[in-house]
Amino acid sequence: MTTRMPVLFLGHGSPMNAIEDNAWRRGWADIATALPRPEAVLCVSAHWETSGAAAVSAAANPATIHDFGGFPQALFDVQYAVPGDPALAARVAALLAPDAVVQHPTRGLDHGAWSVLLPMYPDADVPVVQLSLDRSKPDAWHYAAGRRLAALRDEGVLIVASGDIVHNLRDVNFRNGATPDWAPRFNETAKRLIETGDHGPLIDWEALGPDARAAINSAEHYLPLLYALGAATPGEPVSFFNDAVFAGISMTSIRIG
Fold this sequence. Notes:
By secondary structure, the chain is an alpha/beta fold.
């Protein structure tokens, strides 16, 4: 019998975390050793947005996408030559039906995926499929999509949502490096709601007030969290790691199950 897989939400922060020896990278590596080995990974990343339909990567050998600028050449040299899984891509599309899902034949893995998976599975031997964020859908749809995808947990698939609970670099003063008060406040609010299984306010996050609106901002880094929460079963154990907030970023990561 296949072991039911946990669900992860990973605060990914800077892509440099993929190659630097730091606490975040070590946290991702450690969590992988504590999990059952997956048959494959489905990753929902902040860095693939579509509109009008979700899309899923169906390439047999997805490329490593370096979707950033201004970093050292060593980061651009990273190649995460992991296999894809076209059959899993088709399964994802089937689970999300009747909503349309485009099976993208050439889409690679963006840094929201490979920067966290490289430390977790450095041998690049676990197949990876990525699902986009359809930004034309309401927030509740993304949570419901997580619920529909939860069946994959019983099929040996590790669902990895990659973003940041707090992500707002526009309203941070980098000259003094200060962390604005709203960043840790909202992070703690989100953690409390996650611990108690009270997901409704996290779906309707704008109603949580100015801290939420500052912390979530453009929401692409927050939406992956809703997939992880949607894929959870009520009453499952929840634990946090890499739990820190600095400037306008939360590295807080979550294991569910």
